[in-house]
Design brief:
The protein is of the alpha+beta class and about 120 residues long. It has one domain: K homology (KH) domain (GMP Synthetase, Chain A, domain 3), CATH 3.30.300. β1 and β2 form a beta hairpin. α1 crosses α3. The longest helix is centred in the N-terminal third of the chain and has 24 residues. The mean pLDDT is about 85.
């Protein structure tokens, strides 16, 4: 049975994703931010920086949510430091994850092609 090893950066990223998911949810409620969720976290090899990817329920207000999260990054990092058992907490860099928006756009394009490809003679 092959043994799959996980790098420390992967483990730290997974732990940050879990903790930040909770902290961001609390920040959304406390500060009245647009609804966002943490979709992924990527950590550099030296664990100094973390890219935090968030998705917004309302993509029109994503810029507002990102600006607010960037302002709260220091506070979120402090809270992470109190919860995690690692020596240095990575600096948080928030980015919008547009993969959901791109997926919806592709789905709409495919649905348009499906409807356009049918003729009046084709009952299906």
């Amino acid at each position: 049975m092959p043994h799959k090893s996980f790098r420390r950066t992967d483990r730290v990223a997974a732990q940050l994703r879990r903790e930040l998911g909770t902290l961001v949810h609390q920040a959304v409620r406390e500060h009245g931010l647009p609804s966002v969720s943490v979709s992924d976290v990527e950590v550099t090899r030296d664990l100094a920086h973390a890219k935090v990817f968030v998705t917004a329920l309302d993509s029109g207000r994503a810029a507002e949510a990102l600006a607010a999260l960037r302002e709260l990054a220091g506070e979120l990092r402090y809270q992470l430091g109190r919860q995690l058992r690692i020596r240095h907490i990575p600096e948080l860099h928030f980015h919008y994850d547009d993969s959901v928006d791109r997926g919806e756009r592709i789905e709409a394009l495919l649905a348009g092609l499906d409807g356009a490809g049918r003729t009046e003679d084709d009952p299906s």
